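Notebook, student rotation project (T.W.).
Task set for the rotation: take a protein with a known small-molecule partner, predict the structure of the complex, and write up what can be learned from the model alone. Partner molecule chosen: flavin-adenine dinucleotide. Sequence and SMILES entered below by T.W., checked by me.
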Amino acid sequence: MIRIEEAVALSRFTTIGTGGPARWLARPETIEELVEALGWAADRDTPVEAVGLGSNLLVADEGFDGLIVKLGGELAAVEIDGELLVAGGGAPNAVCLHRARAAGLGGLEFASAIPGTAGGGVRMNAGAYGSDWRSVLVDAVVAGPAGTRTLGLDELDLSYRHSGLVPGEIVARVRYRLTPKPSDAIKSDVAELLAQRKATQPTNKRTFGSVFKNPDEGPGAGALIERSGLKGHRIGGAVISERHANFIENAGGATSADAVALMAEARRRVHAGFGVTLEHEVRFLGPLALPAL
Ligand SMILES: Cc1cc2nc3c(=O)[nH]c(=O)nc-3n(C[C@H](O)[C@H](O)[C@H](O)COP(=O)(O)OP(=O)(O)OC[C@H]3O[C@@H](n4cnc5c(N)ncnc54)[C@H](O)[C@@H]3O)c2cc1C
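Predicted structure of the complex:
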């Protein structure tokens, strides 16, 4: 039977390092254990969310009153099957990329600077440098309390930082279609992308990645926040990055409330100064919300 842990601190499961506890946590290692955990939650009418590497996640300081699922074992494993890479939903992007390179398969290089998992990538349709999950994904096995379904690209409804997945639908496995490419070329392309990233973003700080989505047109969210004079603005232990204004850093002792207060201020000033309503990209877990403008 799947073991359900109680009152587990979530701050250690997020890259920003803030937030309160999950009421329950399960660490399924097989699809059967995952479905069992989801059934356990459904029987109790309890909300369920997955946590990957917590790299786009802000957890309320009060915590999450539900079940958190953290995938491990075969649900985080990676295999090569011809030109397909088959990854558990909990497989880190870095491991997928490493296995692809070793097999001489290219296509995942864009994900080298995205510190998440396969499942988190589908949920967010994560992307960089003009590619996103849509460009490599074949399909995903998605679990719910009644079992699993395999969803193709159309059914996943991926667009800019959006998927059609709803809370409680957990990506258990994905298949990526890659293309043959010499591993040396993959290595040098990744090195170049990482160098570009290091020059423009705070890569050695505790952040949750981009705070806001870029507006459909006009300057990006970072430029708008920078022009609002907010670079370096600090509330409590949270600071708007001097390197890139669409990042919030935990400068030590930050709470999620500090980060939300900074987000609210950025949103307020950008709306007042430019008439643009920023939408947050980071996912909220637990009772967190931005004030109305
Ligand atoms: C330094 C830094 C740089 C970043 N750069 C980029 C970038 O260039 N491009 C980009 O798109 N993002 C970027 N991000 C954000 C983040 O890495 C991506 O959104 C990533 O895909 C999130 O994956 P995760 O596994 O960490 O998901 P989490 O942050 O753990 O979760 C994010 C959301 O996905 C859901 N989720 C997680 N796992 C599953 C699953 N198995 N099934 C269903 N839902 C799931 C969660 O419930 C939550 O709603 C960056 C983050 C950091 C810290």
